[in-house]
Specification:
mainly alpha, five-stranded mixed sheet, three-stranded antiparallel sheet, 20 strands, 45% helix, flat
Amino acid sequence: MSHNDYLLYFAKNTSSNFSHKNTLMKLLFSILSLLAVGTPVWSAQATARFRGGAKETDRGLQESECTDCCTSIDALPFEDIILCDHGHIAHAISTTIGGTCSHNRDVEAQKLSGKTTNDEAYNFLMGICKDRIQGCTSLESLDFASIRDCHNVHWAKEEIRNKQVGCTVTRADWQEAIAITGTLSWIDAEAVLRESCFEKITPCIPYSDLVEGFKVASECSAWHGVHIPIQDRLGESCKRTREEEAVAIVWDREKVASPGTKVVWHDEDETTTNAVDYLVEKCKENIVPCTSLDALDFVNIRECSNSHWARLEIQSKQAGCAATTRADWQEAMLITNTPTWDEAAVALRTKCYEKITPCVQYTDLYDDMKVVGDCHSWTGVLNPIKARLTESCMRTDKEDAIAIVYNLEKDNNPNTIVVWNDEDETTTDAEDYLVAECESRITPCLDGTAALFDRFSSIQLCNGHHVLQDIIFLQGEACLRQAWQDAVLVSPDEYKIWHDNDPATLDAQDYMVEQCSQRITPCSSLDDLLTLFESVQSCADWHIRKDIESLQGEGCRRNPDWDGVILAKELLEREGSTEVPTRWWSDDPAEVTGYSALRDKCESIIKPCVELETLHLGFKTAQYCDANHVRHEIDILQDDECRRNPYEDAVLLTPSDYAIWGDDDLNTKDARIRLMNECSVRIAPSFQLSELESDFVGINICDYGHIKQKIEARQSTIASTRRNGDQDAILLAGEILKNSDSTVLVTTHLDLVEQLETESPLATYAVMSWGNQEGTYNPATLLQTSCEENIQPCVPSLDLIKFTNITTCSYGHIKEIIRNNQGVDCTRHPDHDAALIVRDFEWLENPDGPRPALRPIWDDDPNALSGSEYLVEMCLEEVESCVPSFDDLNFADIEYCTHHHITEEITASQPDTCDRHPHLDATFLVREHVYLNQDDPGYEPPVYVWNDNDPNTENAFDYLMATCENDITPCIEVEDLDFVNIENCNQHYVRAEIISKQEDCSSDRHPHHDAMIMTGTDVWYNEDPDVDSALNVLQRECEATIEACVSMETLDFRYIRSCDDHHIRALIDETRESIGDSCPSYPSRNVQDEAILITGADVYHDLDDTTTNANDVLIEYCLTKVESCTLKREDSLEVHGCDWINFKDAVRKGTRDENNDCARRLDFEIFAMDRELSALFGKTSRELLDETCTTAWSGFNVSTFDQVDSEFTPAFMDDYTNGLTHLNSETGNFQGQCTYDRNSEVGSNIAKFYMYDAKQNLVDGFNPLDTCQGQAIMCCFGRDRQFGDNNGNCHIDNCEDADPADNSNLCKTETRAYPNNDPPENEIHCHGLAWGADDNEYTRKLMFNNFFYVSLYDHMYSRGYVERTIRREDDPAEFRMCDCVEEMPPVSRADCTEVSINPFTVHRDATSGTVIATAPEKLDVQYNACRGDGRNNDLSAYIKRLVREERFSEALQYQAYQTLVGYENPNDNHNEAACDAIL
C-alpha cells in the first residue's frame, strides 16, 4: 500500500470530532507505524490490492520452503474463524498446533508466512483468511425488502442476527457482516449493507392505497395527512414505524427519477428529500371535500353571526362522507379554500347573510300583534314568534326576530347589522323595531261590557279575582291577552290601570266590582232551604252548606258559603231585620253572619226521624244496652229518607236539655246515658233461666264453652233472637243476680256505672266482664256455679267400676273402664265423668252428709287427694298379677341379671292373654310373693313400684335382682381361655377369645356377661381404677403370657428413610414378614401392638408424660443407629463447588436419584451422615468437608494481575479501579481496528489471560478489593473509549467523551444529587459480582477471576468502558470506578456475572469411612450472566438468590440494597423513581 493510500484513508475517516490532541496523536502514530512496516489498514480497496499483489507468490513460497512448521496454512480453520484479525488468527494457530509444538504461535505464524516480523506474518495470513472465511449467511439472503430503515444499520445487523440462528460459528453481527460483504472493516461492511438495502427495500403500503387515504384525510398536515393514513394501513406484519414507512414510500417513488437522492423523514438539508414535505403536497393534490360552500343550507340556519351554526350545518353534510375523521372546521377550510379557520369563518358568515330567510312571515306576526296581551318585547313580540315557529325551524324566537327585521330592512339598508337589544346606534335593534310595530296594531278581545255585566248576576263573588275569571271566560282561547289587560281596555278611558294602592289613580278593578255588586243574585230558593231544615242532619255549618249546595243547581258558579250569605240577607229582610251579613263565618259570636242567621232558623224547624215508643220496643231484644247497640237500634228504625245519623237523632229523641251524645261530665245531660238506662230497664234474655238449668243435668262439663253451646242451642229455636251466646249469657247471669236482688240492672260499661246510677238512682247496676275485672261479675263464673249444682254422671251405677283384671292401676286404664260404662248417648269425656264418680263414691262413704264438692282430676297440691289419685288407690286394693307363681321365673339360665333381661323373663312367664306391662305385673307379683311368704295373716304388704330412687318406696326390681344374682351361673372359667397367641390384650381380642370358648355353652349369653360372672366382678369395664372390672382381671392374665416376634436388635435402622412413626412401623412389618412362620402373630397382630411388646412400653403413643410410648423408644433408638445412604463407604458425590452449600445440594440430588434407594429428606440425611461420621471421627460432615475441600482447592495454581500485564501491579490495579491510569483516561481501541502498540499489547495480553489463566487458575486479589466485607464488588463506568465493538456510543468519527450503553442511573454522591440523566451524569453502565460466605465457596475462591472478567475483559477490552461515572472535575466526591458494593454511591441497578466450574468429587473411603474431596483436572471457569430471583443479569436479583440459598446474609443484602436502590424493580434500566425515593 502506498503512502497516498494511508493519507487518503486518514483524510476520509478523520472528522472534526478528533480534535482531542491525545486521540489525534494516537491515530497518526498508528498510521506512521503501518507505513513503516507496510501493514494494510482499514480500507477494503487497500486490502484487495494487498491480497492481489502478494497472496499467491508468498503462499507458494511458504508451502515449498517451510520445513519445521507444526501445521500448514490449509490446516488453519479460517472457514469458521470469528474474524480475520490478529487476535483470532493467533488463537486459530494456537488451537491447531496444540501443546506439542516446540515454538509459540507467533513464530509459527512467521514460519507459515515466510515473514520475519509478527505484523508482516499476521497481515499475510489476514489476506489468506479473507479468501477462505465463510459466513453463516450471505448478502443475497438478507431480507432487506421489509427492513425497517436502511439509514440506521442497526436494522441490518438485526437481520444478520436473525440469519445467524443455528449457526455453529459464534460471531457478533458486525463480524458476520464483514465476513459476508468481503470487507476487512465494519466501516466498509456498513457501506455495502446500506447500498444493498436501498436496492431491495420495498414499502409495505402501495402508493395507490396511500392516495385513497389522502382523499379522506382530515387535513393535509404532517400528522393528519401523512401519519394517520400510513398508520391506518400498516399491517401487523410490517415492522416499520410510520416515519420509516413514509421514507420507504418516497424512496420507492423517487429512486428511478432521482437514483442518487437521499430520502429522510425530515431535516433542514436542501440536498435531501423530506418524506413528510413530499407526502403533504401529494395529500393536497388528492384530498376530496365532503361538501361545497353552495351546498350548505343557510336559508334555514339559526344565526349567521355565530359560526357554531355554520359548523353544525357542515357536520350534517359530512354524514355518510368517507372522511370520517375530518372535523367540521377542517372541512370549512377545505370548501372555502382558506388556510385558517378564522378566514374560513368569515367566508361562511358572508355566504350565510346572502341566503338566510325567516321562518315566520312578518305579515303573520303583525296579525298576531293585534291580540297580544301587551306590547312588551316578550308578550308582544317573542311569544307570537315562538307560537308560529314549527318543529322544522331550528331558530329560537330571538334568532327569527333578527331574521325578520333583517329581511324587512335589507333592501333599504343592505349593509345593516341586526341584533337583539343592544345600545349600539349603528346597528338595528330588532327588539325596539318590533315593539313599535306591536303598539300600532294591538286590539282588545272583548266586544264591549254587555256580556260581562250579564254574567255578574251568577258570579261567585264580586271581587277582582272573580271578575277576571269571567273576563277570561269571554276572551276565548284565541285571545293571548291577560284578563286584567282586557279589563283595562274595556273600562272607561279614565281607568288606565287594573289595580294599585295609589288613591289618586282610578282602578279598573274598583269599577268592575261596583258594577258586579249591582247585579249579583242568589242561585237557590230560600223557601226550599227552609223546607229542607225539617230533615237536616243537624244545624251545623257543614250540613247547612250541604243543603244550600244541593239547591244551587248545575249552572251555579258560586260556592255554598257565598250563596248562604245572599240567602241570609234575604231571610233577615223578610223578618224585618236591619242586619246585613257580609261573610259566612266569624269567630266573634256577636257578629251576624250568613251561617248564624240560617242556623237560628234551622234550630226552630228541625225534628227527629224515629218515634220514641218504637225505639223502646226494640230495646227488649237488643244485643247489649251499650252506646253502640243503642245507636244501632236507632239506625235500623231510621227510614231511607232520613238524612240524619243515629247520634244526631238520639239527641232529638231525648228532652231538650239533653244536648250532646257522649261526654264524661256528670253535670251535663247526656242523651247516650239516658237511652242506655231506658234500654237496661226493658232488655230481657231470649229464654228463661230455668230452661238452661234443665240442660245442665247432662252437660259434658261445666265450663263456659259447653254452657255457651247450650245457650246457643236454645237460641237456635227462637226466630226473633238477635243475640249471640255471649250476649244472652250476660243477661242470664243477670237473671241469677236478680233472683237475689230485684233492683239489679245489667251493663258492660264499668266506666259509665256512676253516670248510669246518677241517671237512675233507684237501680243497682251490675257490671258484667269476661276478664274478672275488679268490681265486675264474670257471667261465665255465675253460670258455671249454677251448672255444677245441676250436673249428674253418665255411668248408670257405681257397681260397674271394677279393677280386678285391669292392665295397670294407672289413671289412663281407670279412665278406660269409665269410658266403657258410660251411657250410649253420653258425650262427656271420661275425665269429667270421673270427677262426678269420685264425688258420688265419697257421698256413699257419708250418705247422710251434704253432696261433696267436685275434686279436680289433677292437682299439684301434695296435701290434697285429686280425683285420679282417689281412683288409683281404689284400684290397687283390687288388682291381681298375670304370672301364676313367683317360682315360674327361672334365673339360673338367664342372660344376665340386668333390668332388661329380668323384664324379658317376666314377659316370658306371662300368659298370652295378659296385656299388662311386665314391670307393672312384677309389682303385683312381688307384692303377692311377699304376702304369701309371711306368717302373719293380718300382714298388709307395701305397694311396690317397679324401680325408683325413693328410699321410702319398695322396688320390685331390687327384689327380683337379688333373687337373680343368687341363682345365675357362668358358661366357662378363666382357666379355659388361651391368651398365649392372642393378637393383643385389648378388650376386642379378649372378648373374641371368650366367644371362641362359648361354643358349647347352652346359653346365648353375651361374652361380657359371662366374663363378669366368671371373674366375679360387677362390670365388664370401668374407667375408675379403684373398680376391678372383668376386663381388668382378664387383661392381667393376658399380659402375663403374650410374646413379641422381633426385638430391637433384629431391626436394621441404618438406611431407614426417616426415624418417624410411619417408616419405623414399615421396618417392623418388613422384618416380621421376612421371619415367616417363626412369627405366627404376623399378619394378625397389629404393628403397633408388636412395637409395644418389643419395647415393653405402656402404649404405642399418647400425650401422657407419665406413660412410656413405644413410638418414642423406637424413634430414640433409630436415631442412634441411622447412617448415610447417599454417601456410603465406597460411594461418591459430584459437587459443583467444594463447599458446604453445594455439597448439600449434591446430597439433595442423591436423595432424589431413582437409581439410589435413598429417598430421604435432606435434613434427615445430613443428620444421619453427621451421626455416623461423628461416631467414627468425632467430627461433623461439615467439619470434615471443610478440611478436605481446603486441601483440594490448594492444588490449583494461583495467578496474579501482573501476569495479565507486567504493568498491572497491585498499586496499578488500585489506581485502575480508582479510574486514575492511562487505561482509564485515554481514547482508543484494545482490539479490532485503530489500535496503537500499547493498547494492542494490553488488549492482546488481556485476551490471552482470559483464554488460559482466568479459566484454569485461581486469580489472586489486591487491596482494597480483597478486603470487601459486603461479599460483592461493583463497577460503574462513565465513558466509552473504543469504537467498532457494537457497544456504547463511541464511533470512529465521534468518540470524544462518548457514553457507554445506559443500564442504570446514578442517584447521588456525597456532594450532590443526580435526579436525572442530565450532564454531567449522562448515560452510565454498572456491572457487578457477588460471592458466597463460605471460605471454600467456589464463587468466593474465584471472585477475582470474575472481577478480571467483568472489569478488564468484558468491559474494558471488549467494550472500551473506562473511568468512573462522574469525572472528578465535575464532582469532587471520593468514589471509585470499581469498589466494594458498600463503598459505591447509590445507583438504580447493575448487571451481573457469575462463574461456573467443573465439579469436584466427594468420596467415602471403603476402609476408614473418611470423606475425601478430589478437585477436577481442570477448573474450566465459565462466565455467564447471573441467574437471579425475578430477573437474570441483575446484581440485586442475584444477591436475593444467594440469600435464598443461604450463601449470603440478610444483613449484607440490606447493606447492598442501600447501593442498589432499585432492587424492587430490577427490570427497569431507567428507574429514576428509585433514586427519587432516596433523594
